[in-house]
Design a protein that fits this description.
One of its GO terms (molecular function) is cysteine-type deubiquitinase activity. The radius of gyration is 31 Å and the shape is globular. By secondary structure, it is of the alpha+beta class. The protein has five domains: 133 residues, Herpes Virus-1 (2-Layer Sandwich), CATH 3.30.40.10; 96 residues, 2-Layer Sandwich (Herpes Virus-1), CATH 3.30.40.10; 201 residues, Cysteine proteinases (Cathepsin B, Chain A); 103 residues, no CATH class; 65 residues, Ubiquitin-associated (UBA) domain (Helicase, Ruva Protein, domain 3, Orthogonal Bundle). Strands 16, 20, 24, 27, 28, 29, 30 and 31 form an eight-stranded mixed β-sheet that branches.
Length: 852
């Protein structure tokens, strides 16, 4: 022990005591998914506080020379049976009564208790030092090492800090109208029961307006159930903001909705407001389901959930390489489903898994913050089979159908960091996450193999002026085909019409509506809706120098190796309220898109002249007389439309005005019209809905070629730290400087800006500080276009992701993947052979090219 004491004394300077703010990784290996519960436990570096599994700790020791590690092992405690359990099995799970995770009444989360054993291990000989051994060592050694051990064990781990265990969807804010709510003295008194809608006599889903006491029915739900919108219409006519749901009033409170604030709210004066209309809260009993209970019930909708999860059949669990489940970290099923599919694609396997040893050898000192390392760790965890072993006949194995799986906490934290949605524990749209992740792959693959090229393709848009019959061709890069759902093409129209007739009869009789059948839409009809020409009514034609009608046709200029198709099930009603289309689509196993290949300019076809339309002077541009932003008060000779277009973008003013009238910020509307190329309100609206969460959504439009944004000057200094970060991503210092100046020195916005202006940056010859590195007038080649692969347009289906629930913001995702001609369902930790893959109910479909 004297020898060990001497070794500890010699490395005492490398043993640190955690301080507030230090990141302590004591729950998960930085390079694998090993944990203290894994075989061999977890080794925590007592200097950097990084954790390593038994397979990787030697690598860290050899690379850094660190010798002292805290070895943590955990074993699960034997859980006592519940007093109310008979001992014959697990107690029944309580039904959720609260839209929350990890709190009483919410959805259950795993809470397991462990016994921990800790000791110091000295490398390279793996000499072990227990707390008892430390007691016999010199005071300076004992005190320092014990301080470090106690500090490490007391510190919150990074994973614990980042994983929000409690998410309560019921947290409500106090209404701004509650304190001073106006109540009319109209003599109305509401009885304690027997309510009916004053307009349609409906007897359920009734709301009493807290201003005038009107009892009216609530909103109609997406599936036709609910009310007839009479309470909402009353608010639109009167402006009276608050209503209480009758039947939910108890001495503890009630459901109160604010139409103006468009949310469930708290009314601290509710007893007083109810008393005004003769309702005594203390004597009321609950007779209706609350809005939370209704939302939970809708999210557990039997038909869709059971079909997609194949709940009606006993599925055979699977284990082995490529069959690894993933833990749900709290509404992370969207992430689990997407990455399961991505790592079945050879490009992602080759980039991140085949050469994982090289990636780990080149990892920075803190691999938990390195994108390539964490993606490689995730891919290896899914494909290696190390975390997907058959429990066999082990009688102690619990949840035989569910794997232990891997918990992608570090990955989720890294890819979601700084994002307003993906950094939270809320449910997200799987399609939006797929694009977000592809964007991150693009940013981190400026050199070498880029796996996102597997999805990248070119779209050709052909616009024909109907007055001159001249055409315009443009190309853009895309990664996903968004397939519209033409509801008017349903093959069971008669069944749907009969169901609607029965619903109207039930509504008139005040009885609950019957279930509504699912619309059956042919896949061919969706494809036809995608390819049919679109009419542009306000197209500015350079041939006739005025606005006229044009047709736009979209075709594939290239076919990717892997094609992603999104069924546009999530849409907006006439009131812009999101809704999900409940449809069944006969998606084929094989697909031939050859007929949709672009042909380019036709023989004898004339192109529209390259002439810019007149500039649009928007309200944010200061205008003095006819000078615009050029010239001076004595000489207006500098003013011209060509000069003006460098300051004011060419925008369709009617589209901008339409968007502004919907309540969107002016700059956001201008960007929407600019980035959709003046192609109309529908395209601009789609851009708005897809970018509403962007941090610079309402920031001023920065045009390609402009050197600065409003509020900056070409000589304004930029952060050296921000410069270094962008340069490390493969850009030149001049390009990084330009991006920071264009975004007021905000790093996140600068990174987004630089990736949206790649063509402009790659073609720039002279920067603000002089000529770009390596640039010379005679030697520069034209900027290369986007790298795309091309081949035959014939594909076969190999995976699809399905969504259950009424909105992308709630519900659940699972994926089905075809492996060795067998469909496999990945439902978080449950990985099973699929018996009836519900291919007609998918949301995202993944096809791969068929080799000819």
């Amino acid at each position: 022990m004297a020898e060990v004491s001497e070794i500890l004394m010699s490395v005492l300077s490398t043993i640190r005591v955690p301080r507030p703010g230090d990141r302590v990784h004591k729950d998960e290996c930085a390079l694998s998914f090993a944990t203290p519960e894994s075989e061999g436990g977890l080794y925590v570096c007592m200097n950097s506080f990084l954790g390593f599994g038994s397979k990787y700790v030697e690598r860290h020791h050899l690379r850094t020379g660190q010798r002292a590690y805290l070895h943590i092992t955990r074993t699960r405690k034997t859980q006592k049976e519940d007093e109310n359990n008979s001992g014959s099995g697990d107690p029944p799970k309580k039904k959720p009564t609260r839209l929350a995770i990890g709190i009483e009444g919410g959805f259950d989360v795993e809470r397991e208790q462990y016994e921990e054993e800790v000791k110091v291990v000295l490398f390279p000989d793996r000499q072990e030092v227990t707390k008892e051994d430390l007691a016999t060592m010199p005071d300076v050694v004992r005190d320092r090492v014990m301080l470090s051990i106690n500090g490490l064990m007391a510190a919150d781990s990074v994973s614990h800090t980042l994983q929000v265990q409690q998410w309560d969807g019921e947290v409500r804010q106090e209404s701004k109208h509650a304190a001073d709510l106006k109540q009319l003295d109209n003599g109305i008194k509401i009885p304690p029961s027997g309510w009916r809608c004053e307009v349609c006599d409906l007897q359920e889903n009734l709301w009493m307006n807290l201003t005038d006491g009107k009892v009216l029915c609530g909103r109609r739900y997406f599936d036709g159930s609910g009310g007839n919108n009479h309470a909402l219409e009353h608010f639109q006519q009167t402006g009276y903001p608050l209503a209480v749901k009758l039947g939910t009033i108890t001495p503890d409170g009630a459901d109160v909705y604010s139409y103006e604030e468009d949310d469930m709210v708290l009314d601290p004066k509710l007893p007083e407001h109810l008393t005004h209309f003769g309702i005594d809260m203390m004597t009321m009993e609950k007779t209706e389901r609350t809005m939370t209970e209704l939302e939970i019930a809708v999210n557990q909708r039997v038909g869709e959930w059971e079909v997609i999860q194949e709940s009606g059949t006993a599925l055979k669990p699977l284990w082995g390489p490529g069959l690894t489940g993933m833990k749900n970290l709290g509404n992370s099923c969207y992430l689990n489903s997407v990455v399961q599919v991505l790592f079945t694609i050879p490009d992602f396997q080759d980039k991140y898994v085949s050469n994982i040893d090289k990636i780990l050898d080149e990892a920075p000192s803190d691999p938990t913050q390195d994108f390539k390392t964490q993606v490689a760790k995730l891919g290896h965890g899914l494909l290696s089979g190390e975390y997907s072993t058959d429990p066999g006949d082990d009688p102690s194995a619990e949840h035989r159908d569910d794997q232990v799986g891997i918990a992608p906490r570090m990955f989720k934290n890294l890819v979601g960091r700084g994002h307003p949605e993906f950094s939270t524990n809320r449910q997200q749209d799987a399609q939006e996450f797929l694009l977000h992740f592809i964007n991150m792959v693009e940013r981190n693959c400026r050199s070498g193999l880029n796996p996102s090229e597997a999805f990248r393709f070119l779209v050709e848009e052909r616009i024909v002026c109907q007055q001159s019959q001249k055409a315009k061709y443009t190309q853009r890069v895309d990664y996903i085909v968004q397939l519209p759902v033409p509801m008017d093409q349903a093959t069971n129209t008669e069944e749907l019409q009969e169901a609607e007739r029965r619903r109207e009869e039930a509504e008139a009789a005040g009885t609950p509506p019957p279930p509504i059948p699912r619309a059956k839409i042919p896949f061919a009809a969706c494809l036809a809706a995608l390819s049919e020409p679109e009419t542009l009514t306000d197209f500015w034609s350079s041939a006739v120098q005025t606005k006229t009608t044009a047709t736009k046709t979209t075709r594939f200029a290239s076919f990717p190796d892997h094609l992603v198709i999104q069924i546009k099930k999530f849409t907006f009603g006439l009131d812009w309220v999101p809704k999900k289309l409940d449809v069944s689509i006969d998606v084929p196993d094989t697909l031939d898109l050859s007929a949709l290949r672009a042909t380019g300019q036709q023989p004898g076809e004339e192109l529209l002249p390259e002439v810019a339309p007149p500039p649009l002077m928007t309200p944010d541009v200061e205008v003095k007389g006819i000078l615009g932003s050029h010239g001076n008060e004595e000489d207006d000779s500098l003013y011209s439309p060509l000069l003006c277009q460098s300051v004011s973008p060419v925008l369709d003013d009617s589209t901008v005005i339409q968007l502004c009238e919907m309540g969107f910020p002016l700059e956001a509307c201008r960007k929407a019209v600019y980035y959709t190329g003046n192609t109309g309100i529908d395209a601009a609206m789609s851009w708005v809905m897809g970018h509403m969460e962007d941090p610079d959504f309402a920031a001023p439009l920065v045009l390609p070629g402009s050197s600065s944004a409003p509020g900056t000057t070409p000589t304004e200094s930029v952060s050296e730290e921000h410069l270094a970060t962008i340069v490390s991503m493969g850009f030149s210092r001049d390009q990084a400087t330009r991006a920071l100046r264009a975004t007021s020195n905000v790093l996140e916005r600068a990174v987004d800006w630089i990736f949206s202006h790649l063509d402009d940056l790659e073609s720039m010859d002279v920067s603000e500080g002089g000529r770009s590195e390596g640039a010379s007038e005679g030697s520069r080649d034209p900027p290369p276009g986007p790298r795309v692969r091309d081949g035959p347009g014939k594909y076969e289906l190999f995976a699809f992701i399905s969504h259950m629930g009424t909105s992308t913001m709630c519900g659940h995702y699972v994926c089905h993947i075809k492996k060795d001609q067998q469909w496999v369902i990945f439902n978080d930790q449950k990985v099973c052979a699929s018996e009836k893959p519900p291919k007609d109910l998918g949301y995202l479909y993944f096809y791969r090219r068929v080799a000819e």
